[in-house]
Design a protein that fits this description.
Elements (H helix, E strand, L loop, with lengths): L20 H4 L9 E5 L4 H12 L3 E6 L18 E5 L12 E4 L6 H6 L1 H22 L2 E7 L26 H21 L3 E6 L2 E2 L10 H11 L3 E4 L5 E3 L1 E2 H12 L9 E3 L4 E3 H12 L5 E4 L14 H7 L7 H26 L1
Parallel strand pairs: 1-2, 1-4, 2-3, 4-5, 5-6, 6-11, 7-10, 8-13
Antiparallel strand pairs: 9-12
Bound molecules: nicotinamide-adenine-dinucleotide.
Nicotinamide-adenine-dinucleotide (NAD) binds next to α2, α4 and β5.
């Protein structure tokens, strides 16, 4: 096993993030911890790293950059409390840490289906390696599990006690079954070796730093609307989704990590307010002022009809519930994508 020592910031290009002077001046409290965030250069991970540094911790972000980007965390450099490592969690890692967040795994279907074998390895070997690390250093470890463990559910809304309805070998299985196996490993390390575990099941979350090519419904609609392209609805648009804004979710992560050892999870985190996909398209059109047309395409295999979390446990045990309404979260996300797409157009114009 090799100790990872490379820090990647030396030669990265500029990004669209603002300067974060307040992070540079954050004072570190006595309770400051060293926290490993695997997958920290991705959408959720970058927001988590930012928040942990704001709270005065030292953060080591380990990422293989398959879907994440150094630019997402570049602004954290000035804090002096942030280290970025290129590392694939499929390989073991040795680093003395107090806490571990495991977010490493591509989250959107086109990305996790691009190399399904590596996706399963990421969830299974990645969890195993990080659990071994947690055991070695007595660290508390958090797993970003997913509502996908419920598959195409027969129970609505989904409660944590529901075991799910998952196809074991369909195109989504590398993700769903990988995450299910990770939950098994986490619980076995807890039962057999006493590792302190924290599992959350995340439902559809959106916000700034999603990738324009993420392939999930919110980023698809916003990018299509901003580019004036047709907005693609799969199926008749009556399927429902619940959308949680990233700031709410990260608050839930930290509450879960700080909860008593007896709370292992899984705990659902998501926004229980349901919208149909057609309603979402209408909101995006209204907020962007786009004149894009709506077109319909066949529903992909195993696409769930309905997803809505039951968050009673999170409310009861963590005092958590989402605060940001869809229209507000969409405004912030649209502003981000607008900046990213404008910067991209300028770069293309400069080259031409
Ligand atoms: N965003 C959501 O709505 C959502 C919903 C459910 C679960 N999750 C889970 O939350 C986590 C983060 O999701 P996200 O939306 O930020 O996705 P993301 O794709 O933006 O982030 C995943 C990060 O993990 C990194 N990664 C992937 N494979 C890796 C590997 N083998 N080794 C090291 N790094 C690796 C990627 O480069 C990326 O930075 C994932 O585990 C995902 O399954 C997210």
């Amino acid at each position: 096993m090799s100790k990872v020592t490379n820090n990647l910031f030396r030669s990265e290009p500029a990004n669209v993030e603002p300067a974060w002077n307040d992070i540079a001046t954050t004072r570190r409290p006595k309770s400051s911890k060293t926290i490993l965030v695997a997958g920290g250069a991705g959408f959720l991970g970058s927001h988590l790293c930012e928040q942990l540094i704001r709270n005065g911790h030292r953060v080591v972000c380990a990422d293989n950059f398959s879907t994440g980007m150094p630019e997402n965390v570049r602004h954290l450099r000035s804090s002096g409390a942030f280290t970025l490592l290129r590392h694939d969690v499929v390989d073991p890692i040795d680093l003395r840490v107090d806490e571990i967040y495991n977010l490493a795994c591509p989250a959107s279907p086109p990305h996790y289906q691009a190399d399904p074998i590596h996706t399963t390895k990421t969830s299974v070997f990645g969890s195993l390696n990080l659990l071994e690390l947690a055991f070695r250093y007595g660290a508390r470890i958090f797993q970003a599990s997913t509502s996908e463990v419920y598959g195409d559910p027969n129970v609505h809304p989904q409660v944590e006690t529901y075991w799910g309805n998952v196809n074991p070998f369909g195109p989504r299985s590398c993700y769903d079954e990988g995450k299910r196996c990770a939950e098994t490993l986490f619980h076995d390390f807890n039962r057999v070796r006493g590792v302190e575990i924290k599992i959350v099941r995340i439902f559809n979350t959106y916000g700034p730093r999603m990738r324009p090519d993420d392939g999930r419904v919110i980023s698809n609609f916003i990018v299509q609307a901003l580019r004036g392209e047709d907005i693609t609805i799969y199926g008749d648009g009556s399927q429902t989704r619940s959308f949680c804004f990233v700031d709410d979710l990260i608050d839930g992560f930290q509450r879960m990590m700080a909860s008593p050892p007896s709370l292992t999870g899984p705990v659902n985190l998501g926004n229980p307010v349901e919208f149909t996909v057609a309603e979402l398209a209408d909101q995006v059109l209204a907020l962007t002022g786009s004149r894009s047309r709506i077109v319909r395409r066949p529903l992909p295999t195993d696409d769930p009809r309905q997803r809505r979390p039951d968050i009673s446990q999170a409310m009861r045990q963590l005092g958590w519930q989402p605060k940001v309404v869809l229209a507000e979260g969409l405004k912030q996300t649209i502003a981000y994508f607008d900046a990213v797409l404008t910067a991209k157009r300028h770069r293309i114009a400069e080259v031409a």
